[in-house]
Amino acid sequence: QVQLVESGGGLVQAGGSLRLSCAASGGTASSIAMGWFRQAPGMERVFVAGVGWTDSSTNYADSVKGRSTISRDNAKNTVYLQMNSLKPEDTAVYYCAAGPSLWDLSRGRIGYWGQGTQVTVSS
Questions:
Q1: pLDDT for 113-123, tens place per residue?
Q2: Cα–Cα distance between 25 and 118 in angstroms, integer?
Q3: Closest C-alpha to 80, from 116, 15, 36, 118
Q4: Which of 32, 35, 97, 115 has its CA 20 to 30 A from that of 44?
Q5: How far is the C-alpha of 93 from the C-alpha of 115, rounded, in Å?
C-alpha cells in the first residue's frame, strides 16, 4: 500500500499563488508516477498535472498550462504543484494521485489517492 498525504491548500485572493505538496510513503512509492486531480462541488474529478518518477516528463491540463508547475523531489518522495495567477474557477478539493505511469495518470488510471486539500480562490 502507498499512502499519499497532501498539504498546502488554503484560501487565497484571485491572482495569488499556492504551492501544494504530496508526500508518498509505503510500498514502492519511489517508483510510481504522481500528480494532481481536482474536484469542485457537484462536478467530476479531473486531471490537473502529473510527473513521472524516474524521469522528468510532465503533463498538464489545458486549464492550468502556463500558470502551474509540477515538480518532484525523489529523495523526499514528494511532489509539488506550484499554482500562480489563481482564478475563482480553480476552487476545488485537490487530490494527490499515484499510478503506474504518467501516461496512465493523465488518463485517470489511478492506483492510490490522497485525502485531498481544499483550495479556495476568492474574487
A1: 999 999 999 99
A2: 21
A3: 36
A4: 32
A5: 9
